[in-house]
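Quick one, tokens below. Sequence please?
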């Protein structure tokens, strides 16, 4: 290993960027290589629920000015998941744990409330200050790992050499395919249409709990479900970021409700290939039609959405597995423990992974631990909590949306 630790991160999602921010803060040489051409190439969802893992990870890895920006643009919610009937009346409000682990997040970390955030805004905050660190349009083809380091080979013909390679490249991870080919990602049997409802239009048709609580959801006997949640910016992103350099200022975004209509594959009128290529307006119509047997209020909520905002999502899950003896290549987030969104914890665990791996690599850079021991400890803990949540998400998904059972 070189005298100065160099880390290659494949994937610029929330977990990979959390790791990069953690390493940059302590002066570790890190390069993030992302296959997308720009940060905005793919629709990846709108609202995220952050619990203690996500909030504390953000507070740990970001410098003070970006922490303040995160706080200014995240909506604090009441700690409830609300169950609605098909007419969008409130059935019950279920208390939701904040997942705060005092051993994991000791010291100055506050015990936070839950927050709803806009995924794109959070990602832009995590990208801030990483100019020259994050490189787009860099698709990993393969890597060679040995005792002297790792060489990453990209589709543009370039290579990058480092001491550690981290696969943070999502459910279709090229790193996982080589590092852990027996670790499977499988179809969950469920799909969904996501859209965005302007905040004022949503308030006219939705119960107040959809604004106040973490999430509201209704379902029917088919396990077709309608999920609703708000992203109400305390401060508009473009206003909150004015103190940053112009290149890092946040894009203008308005407050909104996310709407999610989903169910088993066979309940949708088009094959998945056609759903993936369908126009936004067509997806909005399909989503409203899936609720046609419900009281009109539900379909009207979907029809109140921005017609240009709807997109299709297939749902997948990891199958719990083990990693072979640690090497200088590791994985985090959806690249190893992808889960369906029934618990709202996927992004939180990815950022937790990034923060904890940052701690481990910092200890290596300081000469406090050997690399192999640090990665072994990280992987042991990450697999433990990651697959614990994968199993629980699958269990709840079977109950709420007829998700496939995990193999085995």
């Amino acid at each position: 290993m070189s005298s100065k630790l160099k880390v290659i991160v494949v994937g610029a999602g929330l977990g990979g960027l959390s790791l990069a921010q953690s390493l940059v803060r302590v002066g570790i040489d890190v390069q993030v290589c992302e296959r997308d051409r720009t940060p905005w190439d793919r629709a990846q969802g709108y609202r995220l629920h952050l619990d203690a893992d996500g909030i504390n990870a953000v507070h740990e890895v970001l410098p003070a000015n970006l922490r303040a920006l995160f706080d200014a643009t995240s909506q604090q919610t009441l700690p409830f998941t609300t169950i609605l009937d098909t007419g969008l009346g409130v059935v019950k409000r279920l208390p939701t744990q904040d997942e705060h682990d005092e051993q994991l997040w000791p010291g100055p970390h506050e015990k936070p409330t839950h927050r709803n955030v806009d995924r794109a805004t959070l990602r832009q905050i995590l990208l801030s200050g990483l100019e020259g660190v994050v490189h787009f349009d860099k698709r990993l083809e393969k890597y060679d790992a040995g005792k002297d380091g790792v060489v990453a080979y990209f589709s543009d013909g370039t290579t990058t050499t480092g001491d550690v390679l981290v696969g943070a490249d999502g459910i279709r991870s090229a790193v996982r395919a080589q590092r852990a080919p027996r670790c499977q990602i499988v179809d969950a049997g469920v799909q969904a249409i996501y859209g965005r409802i302007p905040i004022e239009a949503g308030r006219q048709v939705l119960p107040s709990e959809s604004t106040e609580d973490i999430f509201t959801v209704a379902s029917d006997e088919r396990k077709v479900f309608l999920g609703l949640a708000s992203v109400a910016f305390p401060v508009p992103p473009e206003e909150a970021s004015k103190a940053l350099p112009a290149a890092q200022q946040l894009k203008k975004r308005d407050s909104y409700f996310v709407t999610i209509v989903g169910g088993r594959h066979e309940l949708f009128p088009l094959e998945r290939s056609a759903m993936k290529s369908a126009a936004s307006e067509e997806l909005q119509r399909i989503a409203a039609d899936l609720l046609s047997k419900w009281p009109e209020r539900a379909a009207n909520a979907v029809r109140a959405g921005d017609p240009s905002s709807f997109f299709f999502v297939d749902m997948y899950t990891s199958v719990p597995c083990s990693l072979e003896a640690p090497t200088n290549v590791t994985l985090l987030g959806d690249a190893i423990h992808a889960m369906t969104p029934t618990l709202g914890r996927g992004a939180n665990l990815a950022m937790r992974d990034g923060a904890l791996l940052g701690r481990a690599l910092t200890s290596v850079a300081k000469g406090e631990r050997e690399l192999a021991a640090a990665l072994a400890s990280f992987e042991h803990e990450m697999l433990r909590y990651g697959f614990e949540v994968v199993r629980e998400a699958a269990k709840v998904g079977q109950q709420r949306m007829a998700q496939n059972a995990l193999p085995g």
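Residues 371-401 form the longest helix (31 residues). The two ends are 40 Å apart (CA to CA).
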